[in-house]
Design a protein that fits this description.
Number of helices of chain B: 9
Largest sheet of chain A: 4 strands, mixed
Distance between the termini of chain A: 14 Å
Shape of chain B: globular
Number of strands of chain B: 0
Structural class of chain B: mainly alpha
Radius of gyration of chain B: 21 Å
Strand content of chain B: under 5%
Oligomer: heterodimer
Chain lengths: ~80, ~180
């Protein structure tokens, strides 16, 4: 199981979402993608997309206005 | 000190706090609230809701403050526009509303404990922001409205112009998205 982190701090919508979508295509099954964001609308649309796509998703608030969206690729 | 910390830790896990201040509203709730308040805006001020036109007035007042005059400018040539400028910034409903948006957004983000000064990631971001801002600002003025004044208020007052604006904006958004993917991914 690999863990891939993408740093989207300081980036506004829809950049974090598109970056996460592209990266998720590259990684293998069972790998974990961690998207670091500080844009609150990405905190909504990144998990929404990943859940709709059927992956396991968790959002963690790591600091004031900073989140990590943790996506486990399951298919 | 310990007591305050304990209080805030408790507040953080409080369901009412989480629901009202922490989690974002649903899109439907946001849409309904926006609609209600834009109706109130129209009823109270007599003008439909707009955002970017206010910036042009701010520019005019700033220019007048350093001794300039916009009397002869086509954009401000109507009696209505002159009256608004003469009445001053403190009597300008749009100014108060825009400041309200800024203060309200700040309040909301502070209440959710999500305030953060974001770093600038690259020079590219600066160039894109400045270019995009200038294009949007200029475009909004020659179109006599932005996505709020021309699109949102236009459509909600059953004006055909709002729909024409929507077609133009859709085309612009397609081009903008292509550029975004090309230069920012």
């Amino acid at each position: 199981m690999n863990e891939v982190v993408i740093d989207c701090l300081g980036e506004a919508c829809p950049v974090p979402l598109v970056k996460a979508q592209n990266k998720l295509k590259e990684i293998g099954l069972g790998d974990v993608l961690i998207v670091q964001i500080d844009h609150s609308c990405a905190m909504k649309n990144v998990p929404e997309w990943a859940r709709k796509d059927g992956h396991n998703v968790e959002v963690e608030e790591v600091d004031d206005g900073e989140w990590e969206v943790i996506i486990e690729k399951v298919k | 000190m310990e007591a305050t910390k304990a209080f805030f830790n408790k507040l953080r896990d409080n369901d009412i706090y989480k629901q009202w201040f922490k989690s974002p509203l649903t899109y439907v709730a946001g849409a309904v609230l926006l609609s209600v308040f834009q109706i109130i805006t129209l009823a109270v001020t007599g003008n439909p809701w707009g955002v970017s036109g206010v910036f042009a007035n701010w520019g005019a007042w700033a220019y007048e403050a350093i001794g300039g005059s916009v009397d002869k400018w086509y954009y401000f040539s109507s009696t209505g526009a002159q009256n608004t400028l003469d009445a001053g910034i403190l009597n300008h409903a749009g100014t108060m509303r825009n400041l309200g948006i800024v203060v309200g957004a700040l309040f909301a983000t502070l209440m959710a404990s999500q305030f953060k000064i974001k770093k600038i990631k690259s020079k590219k971001q600066v160039v894109a922001a400045v270019l995009g801002g200038l294009l949007m600002g200029y475009g909004a003025r020659i179109a006599f409205g932005c996505n709020i004044g021309a699109l949102y208020s236009g459509i909600s007052s059953l004006s055909l112009s709002g729909w024409v604006f929507a077609i133009g904006m859709f085309g612009g958004a397609v081009v903008g998205s292509k550029l975004l993917v090309k230069y920012f991914m």
